[in-house]
Amino acid sequence: MIHPGTALSSGGGRWLERVRLELAFVSGRAWLASRRVGGTGVILRFGRVRPRRGDTFQPLAADEITPAFLDRLIAALKHWVYDIVALDEACERAVRLAAPRRFVSLTFDGASKDLLSHAYPVLVRHAVPFTLYVPTAFPDGLGQAWWLALEAVIARQTRISLMIERREQRFTVIKPSEKYELFAYLANWLRSLPPAELSTAIRDLCTRHGVDLDGLGREAALDWSELSTLAADPRVTIGSATVNYPVLTNLRDAEARRELGMGKAVLESALHRAVNHVAFPFGDGAAFNRSHVTMAAELGFASAVTTIPGLVQTEGRSDLHALPRIAWDGRSRSLRAMRVLLSGASFPPVTSTPRVKFEAN
């Protein structure tokens, strides 16, 4: 499973960002920045891992990497003398004095079947730990992967109709650029809806255009047997991503607490192991707020991760229940750009205890 957690950007914007990172590498600014910004390590976030496809329309490609890139990245991290650590150790380092070497912790969102078939063999071969965040409705076969359904509808159709705010809306999308624009528009709209309205809207869209919403979720996500196989590996940390993967700010506080608490409880019951870590669904500053950070701590999670980029700081200067993660854009295969991101050159220096900035609801 994969979600539109990484913002869609224009080709020009991606090119400029790539040039900026490459220049930072060539100029040596990354090495100077690594000394200035400090930090004890980085939590990397990935979504789907599978071979590159040739499809013209791939609106979720930013959240995908190939097995070959994952293999190259891990080899590079070892060559760059990073400690590749489990999330438990990352949390421990966040409250201690700086270690001689920085760490990298690998995390994967969405519990896609591709992780077992394509990523896991690479991770096992390199003998490195990683964390997998699971929204429990999906191994139960009940999750609605609305982002995959939206992608499928727009990929197959040139004329699309649906109800938006009680009005019938029709779109004609022939060119790839038109399809990308419509995907971004509808994904942002769907993400803004309360869960019941989102479910009604995406099911209506799929029914109109012949897409099997329930089947897409079951086909994409790991089942409980596959998760149990992964959980038996001592190098694998299983974390929660709630039950239904909602935008928490679209829920009442009681509903958000139930999503966070039940996700933990279901995983612990199914896998017979403690679940100490959670990922806020989508994870950007509009998707959760300070009350959800407090809930995660009160529910007994040792950490909660976001998709807000940054370095993990030492001596308790990073909030363990709002940890930053660097979400790698899978459309890039540049290890030089990755090294610049790991250096912290792209982030402002931290001079005091960092606070996550939340968008107003």
Number of helical stretches of at least 4 residues: 13
Task: State the low-pLDDT regions, or none.
Answer: 6-12
CATH topology of the largest domain: TIM Barrel
CATH architecture of the largest domain: Alpha-Beta Barrel
Specify Rg, calculated over alpha carbons.
20 Å
What is the 3D form?
A: globular
User: Which structural class is indicated by helix and strand composition?
Assistant: alpha/beta
CATH superfamily caption of the largest domain = Glycoside hydrolase/deacetylase
Oligomer: single chain
Tell me what you see in this structure.
The protein has 13 helices and 12 strands. Mean pLDDT is 90; it is low at 6-12. Helices cover 43% and strands 14% of the residues. β5 (103-109), α5 (113-126) and β6 (130-134) form a beta-alpha-beta unit. α1 packs across α13 (335-343), α2 (29-37) runs parallel beside α13 (335-343) and α11 packs parallel to α12 (290-298). The chain folds into 2 domains: 11-142 and 221-343, TIM Barrel; 146-215, no CATH class. The longest helix is centred in the C-terminal third of the chain and has 19 residues, at 253-271.
Write the layout of secondary structure elements.
Blueprint: H1 11-27, H2 29-37, E1 41-46, E2 48-49, E3 64-65, H3 67-79, E4 83-84, H4 87-94, E5 103-109, H5 113-126, E6 130-134, H6 146-156, E7 159-164, E8 167-172, H7 176-191, H8 195-209, H9 213-220, H10 224-231, E9 236-240, H11 253-271, E10 277-279, H12 290-298, E11 303-305, E12 326-327, H13 335-343
Parallel strand pairs: 1-5, 1-12, 2-3, 4-5, 5-6, 6-9, 10-11
Antiparallel strand pairs: 7-8
Helix pairs in contact: 1-13, 2-13, 3-5, 6-7, 6-8, 11-12
